[in-house]
Sequence to fold (262 residues):
Amino acid sequence: MSTIHILTDFYSYPEEMTRTLRIYIPDAYDEDPDSRFPVLYMLDGQNVFNHPASALYHTWCANSTMDRLISEGCLRPWIIVAVDSSPGRFAEYSPWDEPAVGSKGRGWLIADFLVHHLKPFIDRTYRTLPEPFWTAVMGSSMGGLMSLVLGKAFPDMFGRIGAVSPTVMWAEGEIYRLWDAPTGRWCKIYLDVGSEERYWYYDIFLDFVEAADHFYGHLKRIGLQDHELRYVLEPGASHDEQAWQARLPQIFSWLLEDARGV
Fold:
């Protein structure tokens, strides 16, 4: 059976705070002690796994999905490192301020933690394939925005980016200015949104559908090609973990596949 290791009070020096890590280890890790494994980093880790210690009843069920895809021969085994968010999620998942909700962006601090502290720890502790080709980052909503930030700012770390229902309209579209050109490295970007993701957040109307479609067009205009970018508009899907869980198999199958032609 696959296992999930939970590390509480893992200290983030850049942020001067502790975080909880939830680490999925596939069966093959113990069955084949000579093999090394690719790693997927997922944000909002408390909502990622089908596990009694998760924060929500309905989660992404990423462990169950990975187990099934591996058993069906659809995917090679990946390690999944799920990093819990904090109560200051708006600030930690954006490098930029958002005056509309009074959020002061501190996203570069968690980026520093992930790139210079957490990933080296994971690569030291587990038998990983550390190259960007074998390293993915994924999140939803603000976590999707932060995944796009990490993939662009650190292409030598993260070659695969999962931006699920991303909040690309945040901070007046600063993500467009960051993504002003391709990374210049091999990459795969999965971008999606549900057709029902339009709602009011206090006094702000959030149209994720229009925002995701526009950002997809932007990525195409700056030169990303179809083999490195996939965009999905999911009919009838809303902005929640149940919707993301439902389409996770197709996300994993494309984003984490053993890419050809490289």
